[in-house]
Amino acid sequence: MSVEHKSIQIRPVRVEDRQAVMALVSRLGEGLPEWTDPDAVVEAARQWLAGYFTPEQDHPGAVFVAEGEGEVVGVVSVNTRRHFTGSMEAYIGELAVAPHTARTGLGRRLLSTAEDWAREQGVSQMTLETAASNTTARRFYAAAGYREEAIRFTRALDQPV
After folding, report:
1. Which helix (DSSP H) or strand (DSSP E) does residue 135 occupy?
2. How far apart are CA 71 and CA 127, in angstroms?
């Protein structure tokens, strides 16, 4: 199934998008190092996003979806936070597109939407994290102008050196 790029609209998430968004979040378990439990990563993202589907809660940040022909085919979440230096920055928590829309420019459009939201908040920096082993995501973000700021080292303590 192919979704025409031009027919896809990006809009704020709605309560009725919950099932489709939660299905897309499963893509966040891809490209992880072998010691990271992909199910735990997906569940953490689902828990964070679940708050956006609770009408009585005050929602920090924003979640946007891409919809084409009545189908939600992409999602991005963005929020603000304080950088360790004290300045405010925007942070992308989740960005995922349906497999059949990969490499169509949809991820770039969702990223741009999050960046526009950040500018509206008066923030001048956008950050995000992805697994070092997720070379596809790293190439995508680099092509969009993102640069590595820090390197995080992890060691599985049950493994010999």
Report:
1. helix 135-143
2. 28
Tokens of 105: 């420019």
Residue 36: C-alpha distances to residues 6, 20, 93, 154 (Å): 37, 25, 17, 10
Q: Are 110 and 76 in contact (CB under 8 A)?
A: yes
pLDDT tens-digit map of 14-64:
989 999 999 998 888 788 888 788 888 888 888 888 877 776 666 678 999
Burial category of 97 from C-beta neighbours within 10 Å (exposed 0-12, middle 13-18, buried 19 and up): buried
Closest listed residue to residue 138, CA positions, set 84, 95, 101, 98: 95
The separation between CA 39 and the C-alpha centre of its own chain, rounded to angstroms, equals 16
As given in the structure block, the two tokens for residue 130 are 């992805």
